[in-house]
Amino acid sequence: MPNVSTLTTEDPVLLVQLTDSHLFADADGSLLGLNTSHSLQNVVAKARAEHPRVDLLLATGDITQDGSVAAYQRFRQLTGPLCANARWLPGNHDYLPHMREAAVQSCLLDPVLDIGNWRVIVLNSQVPDATPGYLDDEQLQLLVRALSEAPDRHHLITLHHHPVAVGSEWIEPIGLRNAKEFWAVLDRFPQVRAVLWGHIHQPFDQRRNGVRLLATPSTCVQFTPGSKDFDVSGEAPGYRWIRLEPDGSLDTGISRLDNFVFKPDYSANNY
């Protein structure tokens, strides 16, 4: 059974997405020269200042870089003040057993949430020890079941890996390997309004058959849009906010840190 919020079906839902934080067990850990804990802390502070009331926090994968329990615990500690109602999903850098340990006695890993007039479905596209994603039969069955059980709600689907081409040649092969099967399910259900993911460390906003397709900057380093090869830009870390309206429409935007200066240290090469 899905977890149910206290919002009524007539209430809008304010959602914040944080993605690809790449935390380490060591609070001083850095990715390509950027301290990821410090960066996340600043992004959370900005989100709190801009949105005093957040109804749902979605962490869409690569929460940690090293898969350590300590890193997940730090993420939970740093993001807790932003919103008590949160959901996590694993990315290719995450280690699910340690995620479960850090999420003990919580709803953080529950895959279905009814909130406002919406149903949020959280999928696990992780393939252990691999960078691309894949939705196994269990996840596809979960998706079908969750959609079938709530035909009158608007649906937001979340996963880590991109299910469409995003315009960066090096990124395309590390997306969702069975996107065709994923879309075959979604195309059966007209109540699907949006699909939200992480992984690509950059914003993305398009439509497919009326469904909004959204991705979001990382809370740490950013990938250069449209790049042929791996390339990190100097753009600031950020987050996405989404307002889910009772009628199934949504409003969304990206917010980035101010006065951010960063030059990637490729010599570290620890992505």
UniProtKB/TrEMBL annotation:
Domain of life of the organism encoding this protein: Bacteria
An example Gene Ontology molecular-function term: cyclic-nucleotide phosphodiesterase activity
Record Gene3D superfamilies: 3.60.21.10
Domain Calcineurin-like phosphoesterase span(s) in chain numbering: 16-203
UniProt key word DNA-binding: no
Keyword Metal-binding annotated: yes
Pfam families to which the protein is assigned, alphabetical: Metallophos (PF00149)
Keywords: Hydrolase, Iron, Metal-binding
InterPro entries in the cross-refs: Calcineurin-like_PHP, CNP_phosphodiesterase-III, GpdQ/CpdA-like, Metallo-depent_PP-like
PANTHER family: CYCLIC NUCLEOTIDE PHOSPHODIESTERASE CBUA0032-RELATED (PTHR42988:SF2), PHOSPHOHYDROLASE (PTHR42988)
Family that this chain belongs to: Belongs to the cyclic nucleotide phosphodiesterase class-III family.
Protein's name according to its UniProt entry: Serine/threonine protein phosphatase
